[in-house]
Amino acid sequence: MPVSQLYDTIGRTYTVTRRTDPKIAARIWAALGDAQTVLNVGAGTGSYEPANRDVTAVEPSATMRAQRPAGSARCVGAAAERLPFADNSFDAAMAVLSDHHWTDPIAGLREMRRVARRVVVFQFDVPLLDRFWLTRDYLPEFGEVAGWQRPSLTKRAAAIGARLEPVPVPWDCADGFFCAYWRRPERYLETEVRRGISVFAALGAEVEERMVHALRADLASGRWAARNEDIATLAEVDFGARLLIA
User: Which domains are delineated in the chain?
Assistant: First the structure.
């Protein structure tokens, strides 16, 4: 499904749970360096757009564009693979958890490299998500849908000459992406939380319902707590979140 259609379907309540996390934002903004003009590709509702820079957003989904707050950066309806800008139009281009939905991620990254002198991408290295308890214990089908991240993050980085930097996920992460609630498992029982996570749309309703039932039972019995006592007091965990910086 094209990314615009996907988010026209699942993105209607995106702003409820998908917000800028300050710790992750600080890493992204620091990676932008002294860039004053910034292009945000796959910008969604505008999370992580730095307020103190001149930002232009690109977002193919009309549903997502409609949820951008008043006064946010101007937003162009376009695809990452065909950015409607001249070479070196921006000091930097950024993308946050969007390139796995692009039709051709490497083409999109190369487009970002074409229109900007610096590229910063926040994304997960999917194989490392196997260490996450939700994937490990409740979603064995995750590997089947993890093909949405092809080619690998390493190959994507190599395509634009980027280095990879780890970004730990804080226990109180404000941005409700897939592993954001690793120390707050009860949040995955909430429908609005799951609606903001594209993985569940990919897995389908039957798998999602089974996961909710099993997790609810394990939380009630104390099995989840016993199985995950090693993370109970951690402030942050590396689940494979990475910055690609070129």
Answer: 3-245 (3.40.50.150)
